[in-house]
């Protein structure tokens, strides 16, 4: 990629999501990224030939601007728009600048949805976790894929916030027509300081990937 994402060095289960995407969706399928930021995942998805809907509520992450970085202090960071232009991928990405819960699901529905560490943000705590998960599920067309990596509780105060969750707690939302394909979780690990986190810090992360059963019209029928 011609420019690096501010989130480039953070740990991710994105390769597992890409594998599920390839196995369950057609090449060129549409993928919605919730909390797209400056495009750590949007760019590789577009580069792999997917049509991407990038939803993000932070205008600086989208349009660029000054951010506070751990070593260099205040610095200019290019946003998603500039990074897509530099990579010549802008034609494959539709950007939506909004809070996720304020957008009509039909406007951002897709064959697959991916979110990375978005719903634990404190601004989201006023709405229950179930609203985020169910709304993201609603976006996925029958036969499609849902993938979420998320923060698990580490600090004592996380225990009372349901948005710091765990794979076994999330699976309760994935009854029929959903089929859980993969859950994973890390042990606690130290992550280096990054934008928004001036010091090295401890995380624990989980992953859930599921696919939505195809509707009756989409099921493959065997020839008689
Ligand atoms: C941890 S960052 C994303 C980092 C990730 N590794 C990446 O580049 O995609 C999570 C992003 O989710 C966004 N976000 C959190 N809650 C949101 C919401 N309700 N609607 C839209 N964006 C949201 C934040 O603004 C932030 O940019």
Structure report:
This protein is an alpha/beta fold. The protein is 20% helix and 30% strand. It contains six helices and eleven strands. The mean pLDDT is 93. The chain is globular, with a radius of gyration of 18 Å. It has a single domain (14-212), classed as Rossmann fold (3-Layer(aba) Sandwich). The protein has helices at 14-24, 42-47, 59-63, 80-86, 129-139, 167-170; strands spanning 30-34, 51-56, 65-69, 73-77, 93-97, 110-116, 140-151, 178-185, 189-191, 201-203, 205-212. It binds S-adenosylmethionine. Residues 5, 7, 10, 35-37, 40-41, 55-58, 61, 99-101, 116-118, 121, 124 line the site of S-adenosylmethionine.
Largest sheet, if any?
7 strands, mixed
Please identify which CATH superfamily we are dealing with: Vaccinia Virus protein VP39
Kindly report how far apart the N and C termini lie: 49 Å
- Number of helices, counting only DSSP H or I runs of 4 residues or more: 6
What's the SSE pattern? HEHEHEEHEEHEHEEEE
Oligomeric composition of the shown chains: single chain
- Cofactors and ligands present? S-adenosylmethionine
The structural class is alpha/beta
CATH class: Alpha Beta
| Count of extended strands | 11
For the CA atoms, what is the radius of gyration? 18 Å
Strand content: 25-35%
CATH architecture: 3-Layer(aba) Sandwich
In the residues, how many domains can be counted?
1
What's the rounded overall pLDDT mean?
93
Short description:
By secondary structure, the protein is an alpha/beta fold. It has 6 helices and 11 strands. The protein has a single domain, classed as Rossmann fold, CATH 3.40.50.150.
């Amino acid at each position: 990629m011609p420019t690096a994402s501010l989130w480039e060095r953070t740990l991710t289960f994105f390769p597992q999501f890409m594998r599920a995407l390839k196995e369950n969706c057609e090449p060129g399928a549409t993928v919605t990224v919730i909390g797209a930021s400056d495009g750590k995942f949007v760019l590789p998805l577009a580069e792999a030939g997917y049509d991407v809907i990038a939803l993000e509520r932070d205008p600086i992450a989208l349009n660029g601007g000054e951010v506070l970085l751990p070593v260099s202090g205040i610095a200019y960071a290019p946003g998603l728009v500039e990074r897509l232009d530099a990579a010549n991928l802008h034609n494959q990405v539709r950007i939506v600048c909004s809070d996720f819960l304020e957008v009509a699901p039909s406007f951002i529905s897709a064959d697959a949805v991916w979110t990375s560490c978005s719903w634990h943000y404190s601004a989201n705590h006023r709405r229950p976790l179930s609203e985020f998960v169910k709304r993201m599920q609603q976006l996925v067309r029958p036969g499609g894929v849902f993938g979420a990596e998320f923060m698990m509780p580490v600090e004592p105060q996380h225990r009372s916030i349901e948005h710091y969750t765990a794979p076994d707690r999330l699976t309760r939302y994935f009854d029929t027509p959903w089929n859980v394909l993969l859950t994973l979780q890390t042990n606690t690990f130290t992550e280096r300081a990054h934008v928004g986190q001036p010091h090295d810090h401890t995380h624990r992360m989980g992953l859930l990937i599921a696919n939505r059963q195809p509707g009756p019209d989409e099921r493959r029928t065997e020839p008689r």
